[in-house]
Amino acid sequence: MKETQLLKGVLEGCVLALILQGEGTIYGYELVQQLQQAGFTTIIGGTIYPLLQKLEKNGQIAGTLRKSPEGPDRKYFTITASGITSLKEFQEQWQQLALRVDHLMGGINK
After folding, report:
1. What is the separation of C-alpha 22 from the centre of its chain, rounded to a whole number of angstroms?
2. Is the pLDDT of residue 61 over 80?
3. Averaged pLDDT score across all residues of the chain
4. Residues 78, 49, 83: CA angle, nearest 5 degrees
5. Would the pLDDT of 109 be above 80?
6. 10 Å Cβ neighbour count for 26?
7. CA torsion sign, 36 to 42 to 46 to 50?
8. What percentage of the chain exceeds 70 in pLDDT?
9. Helices first, then strands: H and E counts in the chain
10. What is the pLDDT confidence band of residue 1, given thresholds at 50, 70 and 90?
């Protein structure tokens, strides 16, 4: 199974976590860079920007256009109360899933 298929289900939670962990706001390209620095090297803007639009449409993040010191204005995103709730739910689900998978994988001889 390819990493991109596995990542599809958890990317939303990872994006919400990065927005919350940052200084409270982040723009799309910066988010892509942080994901790549965290080891998600296959992530590109074409994956992130539609996800940011979806999260904004669902009210989990809010976007604000700001002047950029270089080039065009940038859209900065902040997490909303709904986004924090979604992130907490994701964390709980992830922990439960990771425990089950770890339990199953622990029984496999290498």
Report:
1. 12
2. yes
3. 90
4. 35
5. no
6. 23
7. negative
8. 96
9. 5, 3
10. low
Cα(25)–Cα(63) distance, integer angstroms: 9
55 within 8 A of 86, measured Cβ to Cβ: no
Q: Which residue has the tokens 């992830």?
A: 94
Q: Which two tokens mark 46?
A: 């074409």
User: In 3D, which of 97, 104, 79, 102 has the Cα closest to residue 12?
Assistant: 79
Here the tokens at position 89 are 């739910």
Nearest to 27 by CA among 83, 59, 67, 80: 67
* Rounded (to 5) percent helix, strand, coil in the chain: 60, 15, 25
Residues facing 62 on adjacent strands: 78
> Is residue 22 pLDDT above 80, yes or no?
no
3-state secondary structure of 23: coil
